[in-house]
Design brief:
The chain is 0% helix and 50% strand. The strands form three sheets. It has a five-stranded antiparallel beta sheet with strand order 2-1-3-4-5, with no helix packed on it. Strands 8, 9, 11, 12 and 13 form a five-stranded antiparallel beta sheet that branches. A three-stranded antiparallel beta sheet has the order 6-7-10, with no helix packed on it. With 171 residues, it is mostly beta strands.
């Protein structure tokens, strides 16, 4: 169950011991029933996709939960705005810029050295109007590729993460 989204909705369900499930849901549908294998740390992500322009995923929600065998479970997911048009570039470190959404309290920045992760939270930004982050970690390795995802948070929780952006570190 999630908040109504005007355009297409994408549901992604992941777990370390299962095949990822992706389902597209029609606009304005606010619930979906699916059979998911039981197990721990199932990640349910729901994205609102703006098909009217190039913004792509512009709302998202995420819940991580354990699913016991044979149990019916209802999961409520709060949709939170996502930053759009995330762009990496080189500055003193690696700079990320984006368009700030409204209705949030801040951002979490995640980084990985592999497209598939694991993504580690490297920063919490508590100013919602922020549209830039500089990764100045002295441990960044020259000529290495880094992958970043950004999520937003508010009183309802954390959004699903953005799609990854990629940057070769070579200032």
């Amino acid at each position: 169950v999630w908040d109504s989204v005007r355009n297409e909705v994408l549901v992604v369900i992941e777990g370390s011991d299962m095949t990822t499930i992706e389902v597209s849901i029609p606009p304005l549908q606010t619930s979906y029933t699916i059979e998911v294998p039981s197990g721990s740390q199932r990640i349910f992500s729901v994205y609102g996709i703006n098909t009217d322009n190039s913004q792509g995923k512009n709302w998202g929600g995420k819940v991580i939960t354990d699913l016991p065998p044979g149990a019916d479970t209802t999961i409520n997911i709060y949709m939170i705005p996502l930053p759009t048009e995330i762009t990496p570039s080189l500055a003193a470190g690696i700079r990320l810029t984006w368009y700030a959404p409204s209705g949030i309290q801040g951002y979490y920045i995640y980084r990985a050295t592999n497209l598939n992760g694991p993504y580690i939270k490297i920063a919490t930004i508590t100013t919602p109007a922020t549209e830039q982050f500089d990764d100045l970690d002295p441990e960044l390795v020259m000529d290495s590729t880094y992958y970043y995802k950004i999520s937003c948070y508010n009183a309802n929780g954390e959004s699903a993460p953005s799609d990854p952006v990629i940057q070769l570190y070579n200032p």
